[in-house]
Design goal:
Two copies of one chain form a homodimer. Chain A is of the alpha+beta class. The first copy, chain A, has a domain at 3-204: Aldehyde Ferredoxin Oxidoreductase,  A, domain 1. Chain A has helices at 21-24, 28-39, 92-98, 139-150, 161-164, 190-196, 217-233, 235-244, 249-255, 277-287, 323-329, 338-351, 355-367, 376-387, 391-397, 400-407, 429-437, 462-479, 483-489, 494-504, 512-530, 542-546, 560-565; strands spanning 3-8, 14-18, 53-57, 71-76, 83-88, 101-107, 117-121, 126-130, 155-158, 172-175, 181-185, 199-204, 292-295, 306-310, 316-318, 414-415, 418-419. A six-stranded mixed sheet of chain A has the order 2-1-6-3-4-5, with helices on both faces. Chain A is globular, with a radius of gyration of 22 Å.
Chain lengths: 570, 570
């Protein structure tokens, strides 16, 4: 029987508890929201003693099925003040499940605010130990030391200096299957929440542990087979993501005039080709060495959308480079070099920050005249301010909303104080609806609509496509399934049904994915309601509704009524 | 017939309109809220084109009755995001009424964001003229130039550099009756709103204008006589405020253990005597010269709670020094010298900032370790950062909430993102209820309860005393009556009744003050509701409910239910 592991960082007590009945059939994002509703006062200070940091593997996690082992990190968001779930690949989810954990809940607050500790979890033991030697250390050096200390086979979830400084753009970083700390539960400041608990890292040692049981092995394996076949046959897998990764979106978004350019002042970037997926692919191929264009972040992944980007000597700059990072640190800053983007990316990773949020911050800084467009060196200097914990660095590490308030910039791309990612909502309006209405704040992974069968530039019908996408994504995020796997699962919902029934024998129906998604959204909206959110929060910034985006010259004009009623029947 | 003057800073058009019927019987704070509800989209960007800056004199303004000529400046607050009214003495209200204005509404946004203009209003003319020579100039130098240009008898409402930079701790500054720019509509960032309209100053030339008519002169004058007698007989006037001004509160709040000390970490200051009203009085008396301890800010005021604080050579340092400034810039920063406080005060005035908000900011900065307690020189350096418009200065000029977010400080004294003033809510709990629940955000002038007949340190009954005080203050703020005048008016409500009936012949009843107050609160709460405020916003910071305040060792423990139901029958 899976258990709840509860860690009180104040008393140091670690308890294992039976899973409450109402939590049993929930996983990932939905479980996180349920626990928040049950245990966290909605009006609490997100960085105070009453908030909790929750690690909840998705429902189907544990069997190394391609793209199905994601971890949801949850809490009341220090960035948005609302419900927050940020999921990631890597090995954290898998290993927590192998240790028999339904969820890990970190609570309390250390008596000494300077505390830095590591939580070690294995089959035999759970303990908090001091990590003063890691305090202030970057992600890469920390990972190295932790792997030295605990062995090469552990999973690690950790924070960088930004999380330790409780900066609200900080994320929680996970090792990928190659022990590279490059998979990030990036959004919403959960790294700051982990920092407020005095926790530098969680080490998950699954030595001796085994895969969770299957109630109906045959049913499960049949579903898995159909799913893998669907992945392989899906054109987006073989022709796009394996070759180009998410960076394929550069060309697509540029063509749709929706790539953020110079702080969202335009939707097309004149140097898009130079930062495109094709360019990335070719550079990796030319340079050889450690570079890799079809890289899996989780064991068993057949899509392999990740990559390892190497320099001219074939040495790794960063792994991976994702489209959203290219969009926010590239075109959004007027930077036209993948090498520069990669170099900024690795520093932001090392600090343990969200590249989307920090890219948006730098766009705001440039807009305010404190950085030239395209000036990667100045961007690097500003990142160094963050590392040095200067007053200026603190203003940057708090996210785009904060930077905008500090610098008096009107054109700040945020919703619920979280940065809009690399799909301009004036060009891809359904995703704009998602940004505005998602309980999570602006987040393309909560319901990307760029492939929806609708005129992306017209206001009509956008709430419907966003709602469908949001329900599905909330379902996938609760099950532990990657957005990429969703392309295949979405074609035939019986695959999810059979995988869940094969594993648990719950007898769920065809619509299980959607039911779970709806439930997750209801729970999240209820938490936000109690935290004081209203329809007033389900809006994009005023300037996006009034300032036309060149070259389409469209504004975000989905009617408020569509935003206010989108979840009426969810 | 009074009129509405409407100025569009985009087109430059200035129109005079009849007063809509529903606005006729409203003045000051209530009128501001009504106009906001009628004309300003509640979700608009406070610094964008849709917000409006409203100057609304109180209902009884115009006759130089002691303490009865206040001006309400209103708008959607750039600091709180909600309804905002900040009233002040001086001559702005009086002169607007003499020009026959029921309200002045500034709307639109200049095409060129660098625009700096002056609005000139007289009996014959209304015009916008360029004020490029004043751009970036401090309050004192600006006042001097404007008086040179427009003559010594005009009224002026203006902003300093902080307002021009649209910093959200900036206020609107008015001339007092001696042409000193020391009366400030300080709270809520209305200076930033005025800055966003490209308006440096409003010059009100009432040459040739005359007092508004009285419908029943005898009734009015009789009420005025009774009121003046009540003022003169009130012990708080003659024995306290005329001699010591608001600075008398230093001793009182220190005795009640509620004076903010070192960023609200204690309620008693060991050097309270050195910054007390008695000390201020004695210093002024000793030093002679320009110093004055019983100074009137408005023509006709018999209370004269204001002062002129001079240095050892008898030259003015600043006028006035108020208790809240002493509390926030003195004890709150561990500063024990009135000279130092006065020197910081005059710089903050010159920048056009709110001393309460900036005092709270500096407390947060010291808490974060970027300033030593008691270090006035460092405080002055930080103010210079604001003047220089550095990124750091911008983080400070945005108020305590913003500074706290930037610096990662938990102990930030704000409610609705506006700084708590110099009455710690853990020691004076009714005022804590006001801070939490006032639609205006934390503001002692919205309902100070320090003299209420209740045990200030117990949670019981605080909502009732706060409610009574909030209703009365909303009434006074709508009528144009100073808090100080309220001590006398409050003793017999027929004085307000007769003054209003004497002036307008409306036949209002004994409870008119309370009716107006209730109405103002209802309008304000409705605007805030539409702007997305909920009971979640009617809270003090978590740490104030958990961290005991020495030496009383009390926390703010008024039950949430009392906060949530306080306005149920209003």
């Amino acid at each position: 029987m899976a258990q709840i592991c509860r860690v009180d960082v104040d008393s140091g007590e670690i308890k294992y508890e039976a899973v409450p009945e109402t939590w049993e059939r929930l996983g990932g994002r939905a479980l996180g929201a349920r626990i928040l509703l049950d245990e966290v006062p909605p009006l609490c200070d997100p960085l105070g003693r009453h908030n909790k940091l929750i690690f909840a593997p998705g429902t189907v996690v544990g069997h190394m099925v391609s793209s199905c082992d994601r971890i949801s990190v949850c809490g009341k968001s220090p960035l948005t003040g609302g419900v927050k779930e940020a999921n990631a690949g890597g090995t954290t989810g898998l290993k927590l499940v192998w240790l028999g954990l339904h969820a890990l809940i970190i609570e309390g607050r250390p008596g000494d605010p300077e505390t830095s500790s590591v939580l070690y979890l294995s089959q035999d033991e759970a303990r908090l130990e001091p990590a003063d030697d890691l305090a202030g250390l970057g992600i890469y050096a920390s990972a190295e030391r932790l792997l030295d200390r605990f062995g090469d086979d552990v999973g690690i979830a950790m924070i960088g200096p930004a999380g330790e400084m409780q900066m609200t753009a900080a994320g929680v970083v996970h090792l990928d299957k190659d022990r590279v700390p490059g998979r990030i539960s990036a959004r919403g400041g959960l790294g700051a929440l982990m920092g407020s608990k005095g926790l530098k890292a969680i080490v998950i040692d699954d030595a001796g542990a085994s895969m969770p049981p299957l109630v109906d092995k045959e049913l499960f394996n049949d579903a898995r087979k159909r799913y893998i076949k669907a992945i392989q046959e899906h054109p987006q897998t073989s022709e796009i993501y394996t070759d180009y990764g998410t960076a394929a979106m550069v060309a697509m978004c540029n063509a749709k005039s929706g790539i953020p350019t110079r702080n969202f002042s335009a939707g097309r970037f004149e140097h898009a080709e130079e930062i495109s997926g094709e360019m990335l692919h070719d550079l990796i191929a030319q340079r050889g060495g450690e570079g890799e264009h079809a890289h899996a972040c989780m064991p068993g992944c057949t899509i392999r959308c990740s990559n390892v980007f190497a320099d001219g000597d074939g040495e790794t700059i960063v792994s991976p480079i994702e489209y959203e990072t290219i969009g926010l640190l590239g075109s959004n800053l007027g930077i036209d070099s993948l090498d520069t983007i990669g170099e900024l990316n690795v520093v932001i990773n090392d600090l343990g920050l969200d590249t989307i949020e920090i890219g948006a911050v730098l766009g705001v800084v440039a807009e305010a005249g404190f950085m030239e467009w395209g000036d990667g060196e100045r961007a690097a200097e500003l990142l160094e301010e963050i590392r040095q914990d200067t007053m200026l660095g603190r203003a940057l590490g708090g996210g785009a909303g904060l930077a905008g308030k500090v610098l008096g910039v009107e054109r700040v791309p945020v919703a619920k104080n979280q940065a809009i990612s690399a799909y301009d909502p004036r060009a891809i309006k359904g995703t704009g609806v998602t940004y505005a209405t998602s309980p999570q704040g602006a987040d393309h992974t909560c319901g990307l609509t760029i492939r929806s069968d609708v005129d992306q530039t017209q206001p009509e019908g956008q709430a419907d496509v966003s709602k469908d996408a949001q329900i599905k994504m909330a379902g996938y995020d609760s099950l532990g399934i990657c957005l990429m796997g969703g392309f295949a699962f979405g074609q035939d919902l019986t695959m999810v049904r059979d995988m869940v029934n094969g594993r648990y024998g719950w007898g769920v129906g065809d619509d299980y994915l959607l039911e779970v998604g709806r439930q997750a959204l209801r729970l999240e909206r209820e938490f936000n309601r109690r935290a004081g959110f209203t329809t007033a929060d389900d809006r994009l910034p005023e300037w996006m509704t009034e300032e036309p985006l060149p070259p389409l010259d469209t504004v975000f004009d989905v009617p408020a009524e569509d935003l206010d009623t989108i979840f009426d029947d969810v």
